[in-house]
Design a protein that fits this description.
By secondary structure, the chain is of the alpha+beta class. It has two domains: 66 residues, Arc Repressor Mutant, subunit A, CATH 1.10.10; 129 residues, no CATH class. Helices cover 40% and strands 15% of the residues. The strands form three sheets. The protein has a three-stranded antiparallel β-sheet, with no helix packed on it. The chain starts with 15 loop residues before the first helix and ends with a strand.
Length: 230
Amino acid sequence: MVRHYKKKTDRGSYGSDNLKRALEALTNGSPLIKASKQFGIPARTLRRHCDGKVQHPGTSLLGGHSPVLSPAVEKELHDHIQFMEKSLYGLTQMDVRRLAYEIAESVGINHPFNKTTKMAGEDWMQHFFRRHSDLSTRIPEGTSLSRAVGFNMPNVSQFFDVYGDLLKSHTFVPSRVWNMDETGVSTVQRPAKIVATKGIRTIGKMTSGERGTTVTVSGESTLGLVLCKS
């Protein structure tokens, strides 16, 4: 199936708004030929609409199909994706496609989704990204449950309290305070790509922390590298 079709003619280039105005003019008694010339729409097209042989504008997108889910439902799906991302349980594309199918089924929407796989198609997913340009597929950083639970305001405040007391008691000079860069390499499974918000520097996804080994690599310009195994 062609997913990136490019129009080769100017057919339908007059737009839905012009078509609506032309039909309103015909309803108000304007001659067909006059409305055709005024709004730049073929007379045959206007006649088909007047005879009810095609859908009237507003029930579908001109030159294509309406989205399966309404804008309001898609907005709820969009917000749910961002909520799951912030909760460190980001949804993969497969998850979103399954969720779209379940929504269409539960609401009773007539949809073209695959009833065997119970998922929306890849084409629907690509068009969903186009309609919501702030979302994209990204690779999250694995975050253990214990780390996510431990990173909270009381613990962070306690760390800086202890850090401040040490600086005061030992009177470290600035040259003895180093800027360290630390990263953790874990043997726990690497999370799959998820649908997440564009522009956010770091995104995470919850992973199992009960098994596996984490190697922490810390670097500093004068001390070199320090490896810590935990």
